[in-house]
Design a protein that fits this description.
30 strands; globular; single chain; 28 helices
Length: 833
Amino acid sequence: MIDNKIKKVLILGGGPSKIGSETELDAAAFQMMTALKKNGIQVLVIDNNPFSLTLSEVQPANVFIKEINLKNVLDVIKKESPDAIIPIAGGLRAIHVTQELLNQGILSDLGVRVLGISKESLKVINNPDKMKIAINSIDEPAVPSKIVRTDSEAFEVVREIGFPVNIKKVNHKESTERIICNNAEELSDMLEDEFEDDSVCIIEKSIVGYKQIETVAVRDQTNTKILISGLENIDAVGVHSGDSIVISPVQTLGDIEYQSLRTATFKMMDLLNIVGLCHIQFALDPNDGSNYYITKINPMINSSSALAARSTGYPLVYVCTNLLLGNSLPEIQLHANYHRLTPIMEPTLDHVVIKMPVWPFDNVPEANQHLNTTMKSVGSTIGVGRTVEEAMLKALRSSQFSPRDVLPSMYEISSDELISQLIHPKSDRLLVLIEALRRGYQVDELEELTKINQFYFYKLKELLDVEELIIKEPMKLSTIEVAHDHGFGDGMMAETWHQPIEKVRELYHAAGEYPTYKAIEPSAGEFDQNIRSFYSSYEIENESSQESEKTALVIGRGGNKLGPNTAADYYTAEMLIQLHRIGYKTIVMNNNPNALSLSPQISDKQYIEPIQLGAILNIIELEKPVRVFIPGNRHFLLKQLKKFTDLNVQVLPPDQETGVVLPKDVTYALNFFVTQDESYFISTEKLISNNKSDLDYVTAYETPYVLDDDALQRDIEESKSHIQSSNWIGLVQILFNQNKKGESEYVGIRPLRLTETIFLSRATGINWVRALVRFYTKRLDINELMKNMPDMSNRVTHMQATFPFKQLNVKVDHANSSQEVGAKIKFRLVDDK
C-alpha cells in the first residue's frame, strides 16, 4: 500500500548531458513526476540542465535550477522540508550527494527518507572491495580485484592473478574507465600516471573476450521480483557495453545459462534490499557459459534500463515509482491501455530489438576512434523487427544519418587495415564485419579475430544474400517482398535500381501490399492491450490504425549526436505536449531508445522506425496527418516531402538552410517575435565566444546584454527594418558587433537557434516553444503573450555549453557549437558577481 506519510518528494536531476547520459535520465524524472502527481504527491525538482522537460512541467515554485551538489541539495531540503528524496534518476552525481547526506546523518536529523536506493546498495556503489564481498557472500563470483596505493602493491596483486589486468582509478565524483595492461612495462607506465595525484587504483583480472550479458529487474518490498529484460552485447568484454551493439532478447545463451543469470540477479537484489529496479552486468566465459562473473551492479536508472523499457513496452519507471511509494507489484494500477496483470508478469517478446551506437568523431576528429573500455559513443539508435536480420538492418539504417536510404560500404579499406580493425575495432565496426564477409572471410575466422559469436555473422551473411538479390533482380515484386522482410527500405532499393522511390512503392502497392505495424508490448500478444508504440512489418495483420482525423505527426531527430541534439529532443517533446493541448492527436516518429520524446505520456502514439523518406511516407499513408513537423536539420527530407503538395509540412525550429551568409564576428544580439504584421522585441543577449568574437565558437549566452536606452532604441529600430526586408517570421535574432571603440553595427540576421530558444524560455519564464506551436497553428494571442513579458533588468541568466573532451581524452583549444554535448544554466542578480 502507498505510504500515506509521503506528501512531498524532491527529485534530484541528472545535470548536463554527457557521454553515458543523454536524455534518458530526464525522461525517467518526467515519468516519475507524472506517477507521483497521480498519487497526490507534491513534486520538487533540482537540476541545472536547461534542456530538462521535468523542469518545465513542474510548477515554477517547486523548481530549483541549481547544480546538484551537497550545499544546493541541502539548501532545498531545509527550505522545503520534503518527506523524501529520489536520487536514482540523477546519475552518479545524485547518488554521491545522497551518500554524503546519509553519511553525515543529515537526512535522519531532518526526517527525510531516501527512495529508490537502499543503504546496502549505497555501500557497494563505486566501492569494488565492498561489492566483491557482497557478491561472494551469496556464493556468486566476482572478478578478482584489489585496491592498491603503490606500485609495489600493484605488482604484488599481479603476481597473484596474472596478466592481463585492468586498472581503474577510484574517483568518488565521476565514473571512470578501465585501462588494460598486458605486461609489466605497460603496468609501470600506467601506474606512473595513475598515482601522480595520490590516487587510489583498483587492479583486477582482465576478462577481455568474455561475453557481455546484462539484466534489468524489479523488486518490491514483499520480496517479489520479476526480470524485465536480458540484454546481450554483441561485442565481447574489451569494448565498453555503452559502445557495443546490443540485442534483446538474448540470442546465444541456452536456457540453463540464462536462468542462472536470472537467479543471480534476484539473489543480488535480495542481498542489497533493492526496492525498485536494478541493472546488473555479467561476463561469461565464451567456452563455458556456466562460468561467469558479476561485473557491475547499478541500482538506478541508466541507458540499459531505458533500453529494457523501450524493448519490452513494460512501464518500468511508472511501476518503479509506485514501488518506491510502498505499493507491491500486484497492487499497482496501470492505465486502462495495459492489462491488469502487466506489472507482475515477466515480459515476453515476439520481436527483436537491436541498439546501434552513434559516434562523435565527425565533430571531434582528434579523438581516438578505437573502441575499448572507455565509452565514446554519444547516443544510439534502435531497430525493431520480427527477426535479427530485420532489426539489425533497421538499426544500421537509423544510425547512419544518411540523407538517402543507402547501405554504406567499406570497399575502399585495405586488407591490412581490415584485419587491424577486426582485431582492434573502431566506430564503423559493423560495416567492417560486413566487408570482411563480402571478401570471403570464413565465419570461424571472424569469430576468432573479433570474439563475436558466429550466430551474428550468419545473420549478416543472410543480409548480404538479400543485397545480392536486390542487385541481380531489380524491380520485381518478389525481390521487394524479400527485401522488406529483411529490413531493407524502399529508398535503399530505389537508389540501387536508379529509380524514383515512387516507382518502387507503386510496384508493391499495385499488388495490394502495404506495411503493417506491430505493437511493442510485454505479453507477446497473450493479453489484449492497447499500448501505443509500434514498429513496421510486412505481415498480414495490422495492429495500428488511423489515430484521428486531426493528427499531427512530429519527426524526431533520431540518435543523439554532438551539437544541439539533446536540446532538440526537449524541443520535440515540448512540441508534442503543446500540439496535444490545442486539440491535436499527436504521433512521434523516432528511433532513439533514450529519447525524452518517446516517453508514452508525451504523445498519443509512437513509431520506432528509421527516419527516412520511405518509412515516413508509410506512416503518413496510414495516419493521414493534417500536419507534419520536420526537424530543422533534415534538409533532404524536407525537400523530398515538399514534393508531395498535399502534405502540410512545417519545419520547427526554422533553422534550415537560409541562404544568408552570417558574419564572422558578433558581440550581442536582439531577439524578436515576428508576425506577418509586427516585430515584438523580447530581449538583448550577449553571445560569448571562446575564440575572439567568432560566431562559430559562441558556446555561452547571457541575458540581458546591457545597453543604454538610446543605443537600445536605435538597435531596435534598425533591427525592425532588417526584419521587414527579410520576410522572416517566428523567433528571429538580429546580430550586432561592437568594435574596440564601443561602436555597434548590424552584421546579420537569422532564425533563433533551438538552444537559444530554450535559453530564452528559461530566462523569461515564457515557453517560447509553446508560443511557436500556437503561432504556426494560428492559435497565438500575441498581445496576451507580450503582456506577460517580465522585467529582466534585475536578473542575469547565463547558459554555458558543456563538452565531451575530458571523457574522450582530447584537448581542444577552442570548442565550437557543433561539439556541444549538453549545457548548464544559472541565474544571478545583477548586483552579484
